[in-house]
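[INFO] parsing input record for DNA starvation/stationary phase protection protein
[DEBUG] input buffer:
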Amino acid sequence: MKKDKKMDINIGIDEKNRKKIAQGLSKLLADSYTLYLMTHNFHWNVTGPQFNGLHNMFMDQYTEQWTALDQIAERIRALGFPAPGTYKEFSKLSSIEEIEGVPSATEMLAYLVNAQEATARTARSLFELVNEANDQPSADILTQRLNIHEKTAWMLRSMMAD
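[DEBUG] output buffer:
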């Protein structure tokens, strides 16, 4: 085999469907990275009476999100496409708006609920495509991400309850 020859991918999913799935996963990666940055930013900048609890909770959340970023990006690569990896690409693909300034602790919780739910919606929107393509590894990632994002949104919402 020649060194410069690209091997075809033959995993049982045609190129057209692999490309569509990779594009969808790229949006999930962008939302996940934007959520990661938001959570890490809030970890650094949270203040107030809930500081210790929120500071530690945000660290747990961004640590989990960091691991997920790698899983999503590696799935895109396994499908045969480059994963987005720049702020510019992420800002174009993400459905989450970046937050400017330093919001209050309560506002941070609300922003994170919205970002967690947006990321869950992005993951959920891909199920029909991955199921039609018989792409169980991508479906598994989506299921894991939905479980995490929905549970985290619930926990964050619960912290804002009276």
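[INFO] The chain has a mean pLDDT of 93.
[INFO] shutting down worker
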